């Protein structure tokens, strides 16, 4: 699965992929291995990661855009504390666009999210940006976020 995912991330027409499974430990282990491998191979200039979910709160109320922006921004050296959500998104968007090849890992996806609202450029806005979504089930990836390629950890446990 590791080789398949890394090969998929290298394809120029693939922007987003997903990883799902019931075991947090297995998914986390694969994500760590992907990070190590793409760093070693120089596949991306920058790799950043953020957690999307909060525990014990319904997803629709738990997506903390400000916290996600902060988490990603800190890894890119941005100071976003005194800005509005829109200003933060704009700063993050511009900083990410400055990176030629960047991998953004969004962990604990539980529902649909608006990448533009967070400040993540993708598709024609940034051809060098790849996004790896990590979720508990395929439904969130394929139905909510329309991720074209999703890898199951449950088949490899």
Automatic annotation (TrEMBL):
Name of the featured protein: Disease resistance protein At5g47260 family
Domain of life: Eukaryota
Record-linked Gene3D superfamilies: P-loop containing nucleotide triphosphate hydrolases
GO molecular function annotation: ADP binding
Pfam families named among the record's database cross-references: NB-ARC
Signal peptide: none
NB-ARC domain ranges (all copies): 4-146
Protein source organism: Cajanus cajan
